[in-house]
Amino acid sequence: MALLLVHGGATNLTSSPLNDSKQGATEASCNGTDMTGKSATDIVEAAVMAQELEPSLNAGLGSVVQMDGRIRMDAGICNSDGKYGAVMQIEHVKTPVRVARRVMDIGYHSVLSGDGAHTFAKEQGFESQSPFTADAFDAYLKTRAQFPALDYNALTVNVDDINVRKLGTVGAVAIDDEGRLAAACSTGGTKFCFPGRVGDSPVFGAGLYCTPEIAVCLTGEGDKILRRLTAKRVEERFLQHGNLKKAVDEAVEDVLKIENGYCGIIAIARDGTAASGHSTSFMAFAQRSS
Ligand code: ASP
């Protein structure tokens, strides 16, 4: 039996139309992912790619625009064979997770960033495509109107509210028919991002993690999650007591308690147990087995 868990970002907004569209897009991506005879790696890549093409989710097409008017995206993928690949701050592609997968498959480097990541993508035959949507650009113009000077200090002082930061990163964890595990994550970052900012999402051990025992994927306040290495923390707790749901809840609690930060987590263990948890009031989530 194969199992897929997908998230479409966590938020503290309650019953907003935005939550409904994220939930709908997440369910559509999960249901549309072909799992028959596929490896866990192929399954999470396909699910995350489908989400990247959903403009209501903050990844790939529809990503938030950084404060200098450019979209720079992060994505990572890893599996129970000990493989990991990521791109950070990549521009001009609609599906960064596919580029991360290529980095992983080639395996010479683990992470490519910025212009180097884009050059790699072009060289590997990925088409240059704009991830801008009218909505994302409109939101950018409004944020710039609030902070016309693009001043880092002004940003850090004034913007610390999860509700205005348009979370909506996407991610997936899966186990396949042969018991292999994988995790993948993709994001445009958060609103009010200073150019070049990288959050937890593409970082091994922070936004995603995978071993032969467990696959984990995060969403939430990336600057805070990074400092807690939360995906790795879920694995450590799980290995200590063997209760996946408890491990997820403890890691969620850790971010809240130590960093006053919000997050959501999805995880699958080797025996096919699945768990999710979030400190936000909402996390777009879907699950499917085959
Ligand atoms: N974790 C992402 C980031 O900080 C945001 C999100 O999950 O929506 O870049």
Strand and helix map with partners:
Blueprint: E1 3-11, H1 17-32, H2 40-52, E2 73-79, E3 84-90, H3 96-106, E4 111-113, H4 114-123, H5 134-146, H6 152-158, E5 170-175, E6 181-187, E7 208-210, E8 214-220, H7 222-228, H8 230-241, H9 244-259, E9 263-269, E10 274-278, E11 282-289
Helix pairs in contact: 1-2, 2-3, 7-9, 8-9
The chain binds aspartic acid.
Residues 9, 58, 167-169, 187, 189-190, 199-201, 219-220, 222 line the site of aspartic acid.
What does this structure look like?
The protein has 290 residues and is of the alpha+beta class. The chain has one domain (3-280): 4-Layer Sandwich (Glutamine Phosphoribosylpyrophosphate, subunit 1, domain 1), CATH 3.60.20. It has helices at 17-32, 40-52, 96-106, 114-123, 134-146, 152-158, 222-228, 230-241, 244-259, and strands at 3-11, 73-79, 84-90, 111-113, 170-175, 181-187, 208-210, 214-220, 263-269, 274-278, 282-289. The strands form two sheets. A seven-stranded mixed β-sheet has the order 4-3-2-6-5-1-11. The protein starts with a strand and ends with a strand. The mean pLDDT is 94. Residues 9, 58, 167-169, 187, 189-190, 199-201, 219-220, 222 line the site of aspartic acid (ASP).
